[in-house]
Amino acid sequence: MKVGIIDYGAGNLHSVRNAFIEIGADADLITTPAELDGITHLVLPGQGEFGDCSAKLQSAGMFESIREWIVADKPFFGICVGYQLLFDGSDESPAAHGLGIFKGQVVKFQKEENLKIPHMGWNTVTPADQTHPMWNELEGSPYFYYVHSYYPVLANAEEGGCSTTYGSHVFHGAVTRGNLIATQFHPEKSQHVGLQLLRNFVAL
User: Fold this and answer.
1) Active-site residue 80, yes or no?
2) Burial per residue of 8-41, b for 16 or more beta-carbon CB atoms within 10 angstroms, e otherwise
3) Is 35 helix (H, G, I), strand (E, B) or coil?
4) Does 192 qualify as catalytic in the annotation?
5) Residue of 41, 53, 80, 172 with catalytic role
């Protein structure tokens, strides 16, 4: 098993890599499609603006390679903007294109009284299917760490892996499909529950 973390200049890369190393995984940063050779588990992290991340990913030549990887149902994990990029597009960057793996649009939290944007800090998630392998050893409604102002609205709600409530917003904190897991929250910042989720991913 070897984890490849896509380094395209957008993401909390070293924290993600250190989290995988902490659980005993062999994890390296990769920058080109050629480096996918020998990789068994692929991770797309991301922090920052959707359009900038999309442009950097395309410039790195990784767009089509990621699509092919996911279509082949190889283990894949998207984090934060790496989750948002799986959708068609984002209101944050109307001219930018996502990977289009999932149908849906990324939207911004609407302002509400006493609601801070970005949504930053610990929040509970409610699994859509507690028997899914991503939730192994994680019971009830675990807490994960969020930092975001935008979230995807899924065209097919059945692809949602969990839901989270923030103010009047109830949004999908994750999606699943086959061996794909992607989360709006940051498992690498979520202490023991986040590390358990990463263990569940590498076990796929």
Assistant:
1) yes
2) bebbbbeebbebbeebebebebbeebeebeebeb
3) helix
4) no
5) 80
pTM (2 d.p.): 0.96
Do 164 and 142 touch, CB atoms closer than 8 A? no
- Tallying the residues shown for the chain, one arrives at 204
- Please state, in angstroms and rounded to a whole number, the distance separating the CA atoms of residues 104 and 153: 6
Per-residue confidence in pLDDT tens, the chain, 204 aa: 999 999 998 777 899 999 999 999 999 999 999 999 999 999 999 888 999 999 999 999 999 999 999 999 999 999 999 999 999 999 999 999 999 999 999 999 999 999 999 999 999 999 999 999 999 999 999 999 999 999 999 999 999 999 999 999 999 999 999 999 999 999 999 999 999 999 999 999
157 Cβ contact list (under 8 Å, min separation 6): 172
Q: State the CB neighbour count (10 A cutoff) for residue 75.
A: 21
CA distances from 177 to 30, 85, 180 (A): 24, 15, 5
Give every CB contact of residue 15 below 8 A, 6+ residues apart in sequence: 188, 189
Please confirm, yes or no, whether 14 is among the known catalytic residues: no
Q: List the chain domain ranges.
A: 3-202
CATH number of 3-202: 3.40.50.880
Q: Which of 41, 92, 162, 188 is catalytic?
A: 188
